[in-house]
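Data card: per-record layout.
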Amino acid sequence: MKKIIVIFALAILNCSLIIDNCFCQWQPDVRLTNDPAGSFTSFNNARCIASNGNIVHVVWYEVRDGNDEIYYKRSTDGGIIWGADIRLTNNSAISDNPSVAVSGSVVHVVWHDGRNVNLEIYYKRSTDGGLTWGADTRLTNDPADRGRPSVSVTGQVVHVVWGDLRHVNREVYYKRSTDGGTSWGADIRLTNNPGESRGSSVSVSGSLVNVVWFDNSDGNEEIYYKRSIDGGISWGADTRLTNNTAASQDPTISVSDSSAAAGVHVVWHDNRDGNFEIYYKRSIDGGISWGADTRLTNNTAVSQNPSVSVSGLVVLVVWYDTRDGNSEIYYKRSTDGGSNWGVDTRLTNNPAASQFPSLSVSGQVVHVVWQDSRDVNFEIYYKRDPTGNVVGINPISNEIPKEFSLSQNYPNPFNPMTHLEIGISKLGFVSLKVYDLLGKEVKTLVNENKPPGRYSVEFDGGDLSSGIYFYKLESGRFKQTKRMLLLK
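The structure for this 488-residue chain is written out next.
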């Protein structure tokens, strides 16, 4: 029996070391649009895909109607089957560069629009998961242009940032709604300097709101960061994240957890190495302090326009890359919060241009969308990895505990991710399940034979409503239950 336990433990440890090879199962490309006009995703700072549970939402803009209009499409089975295209805008002016975010059944879309002569930021929402849509809401009103909005949401609070020319040079502005998009507060100017502040991206978790952009006030373009710890009411100082003589551009940001010590993850492209490469930086204390720059790509071609998403300790990045002679979509991930990174994975393979990807993660499934010219004109394409997000149970030690144990989850309350640890003292069948207040099983985290050891378990409550839940560990005669609170 001891020999069997050792073999199992070594196998688990080995799999954790090569976890990218164990779990990545990318499925074939899926063409989402089919029209002789061009269909385009937005720049990386504005995510064109959002997911919650099995519902995946995609937005793009295209010219099938003679001018650029915003379109939407959804899947209700995790990206396997897709519904019809839904036209969200209808006017004779330009409507482009959309961004989408979702919380529960409420889907939020922002874009910039020229129906008022100059470009203004507009907003639209669906309260039934994308089935029907409300009216267009004009968020800005000024004679100057503005553009490239980015949206993020937690619960009822919706956060939008964009670039704005009302002060001659471009500045970053912010606006929020505290009632799910029904009404909106005033515009808030986040930057104030003589240079251009562009390409802003926002990500929120709980009351921690994080914004990044690139700025040429220092003579060259550098990445900057700003945060609010009270849900967007007040803002801290600008933090310069990069410092080199080259161009650091087009950052995107994602944040994990809802605790004060949340992990904040930023990626961008940078030509300090002679050509543009993808770089990464993280904060493990909610944006107070930052680690060193990490170079994620290393080739003589151009690697540009990354998009980042994070789920617990899993950090996922996509970008487009010309190392193959044409633009192809590449992917990379870290399963330990950004400390170590797996190999580059090429997601597309065709002689045309595959560009401007963005990604989202829900449960174990990773979703990627991009624009692709393999069909002569640009069309929207989609790809999924059903096991790309390593949720569930992961070994953290091959030490054999003396007894079974179940830890309290952290953070608690949480939204939507939380973590817990279990100790397994002997080989056997292990069950770890989540129940609601009525005792109904809502999620199975572990349900298999497990060798002894200590394990980290991640739970994603993104598809559940706010409330009290119980998680129960069973193995043989051992049974233990603890309570946790999901707050959205």
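Known properties of this structure: The chain has two domains: 2-16+392-486, 26-385. The helical segments are 2-17, 19-23.

See the next section for split statistics.
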